[in-house]
Amino acid sequence: MSVNESKSLVVKMHPSDNALVALVDLTKGTEVTFEGQSYILQDDVKAKHKFYTTDLKTGDEVMMYGVLVGKAQFDIPKGSLMTTDNLKHAADPYAYRKIDYQWTSPDVSKFENRTFNGYKRKDGSVGTANYWIFIPTVFCENRNLDVIKEALYNQLGYAVTAKYNQFTHDLLTAFKNGEDLATADIHLNPNPKSNRVFKNIDGIKFLNHQGGCGGNRQDSETLSKLLASYANHPNVAGVTLLSLGCQHLQIKNFVTDLKAQNPKFDKPLYIFEQQQMVSEEELIAQAIKSTFIGLSEANEIERTAQPLHHLNIGVKCGGSDGFSGVSANPAVGYTADLLVALGGKVLLAEFPELCGVEQNMIDRCQSEELANKFIRLMEEYDEQAHRVGSGFFMNPSPGNIKDGLITDAIKSAGAAKKGGTSPVVDVLDYTELATKPGLNLVCTPGNDVEATTGQASSGANLILFTTGLGTPTGNPICPVIKVATNTVLATKMKDIIDIDCGPVIRGEKTITEMGEDILELCIKVASGEILPKAVQLNQDDFIPWKRGVSL
Fold first, then answer.
1. Are 430 and 444 in contact, with CB atoms under 8 Å apart?
2. DSSP reduced 3-state for 238
3. Which residues sit opposite 72 in a β-bridge?
4. Engineering a disulfide at 534: which of 40, 164, 226, 474 sits with its beta carbon 3.0 to 4.6 angstroms away?
């Protein structure tokens, strides 16, 4: 059987590549014609997977996205399926070289005079949401926060569990009545309409964590900076802090870090230390009462029109597949370029998923100092991983591999696309705040929640999260927008997906068109007109990075 290239069943990601990506399932023996060349498939090639376009000898280099992604482990005839057996990770060395990087910014005429309705803070920063947060300085206070959370959520209308409570109640009633639960007519009904008391408070969030004491002092110091950055975040209206008293992370350390980040910090900050209180009941009651008063005052803040340069968008991928670098990541990358051209900020994180594309990032750095900082952070991170018998090459998960991401360099080359093509204006270590408009590189793990937690700490007020396999990841204070790489996922998991990039795969939309659609959605989310699915579900994932080995 012969397949004509006009049907767009395969795609080549870069002219120098010697592998093609299947856009649909292809069977063994099929003759695929692409750019005047014909290939007889030696294996079945499922959509998202790749096949080789040249005969390879042992040790030959395989290129994708224009970079080295692996080396052949034995002789392989062209038309063969790329697998973990016949290809192993490889990446080119990298170093600073003086490059005059030239960037052509995209046409932003559609967005030049656009605004979003955000929350303007006294220090000039602008939020896309208006949250009150509870911070524990140590894990010992997590239980108290859980008690407060249950009380406030149920009474103030922020709980999303009413349908499950009613479902359980109906089961209990049927059980008491002696009914057969397997056949009882009991259904899960939608949550009732929200009945929030404070209409301008988008949520009350609780940053439970496992740190603050034990471990080592460096972890507590990093945690303090992280928590301070969340308190200072433009999406936060006020803070209630609970401390035990004897832990490593002392209140004074947190306050010092907060003032260092923002000397003019003037949001409401209510602090309670349990070992100075008469009882746990008094601690919880006073924390609830003070917060209630603060909420009533913060509720007076209203959204106002703000220019798009106040958007600070983190770009992240998780549950990635073989289409991530074909549809969603390039589309988000175009959105990133649009925002940079409009004077906004973009945060590209996940340093283990820049393995293999380091040279491109280095060449795009605006100074040798930035390039050397990036090189240092990458090398220190990778060396730390190797010391415990790991390495960036071990980053792809079984799900990644199953859906076409065979080596870390392939995953990284596709993942880097979501950062767009603009120059790198700054390189930030974990918890460092982004202050420069443009593309910023942020050192975080690839781990979904550790990365999004870090992006929010660097100031992201929205996060675009691409996924090919599906993940519910959210963040307590930064709305997370889920971008599907394919329509099958968007349809199957519509309860967690916000926008579908499947039209790119089918040739119905260009990367440019999809990128513009995504920016339009960002404007609506930033204005509170649309709530991303993660926000609707209270998917408040928060995991501080302890700087141990996490890929």
1. yes
2. strand
3. 87
4. 474
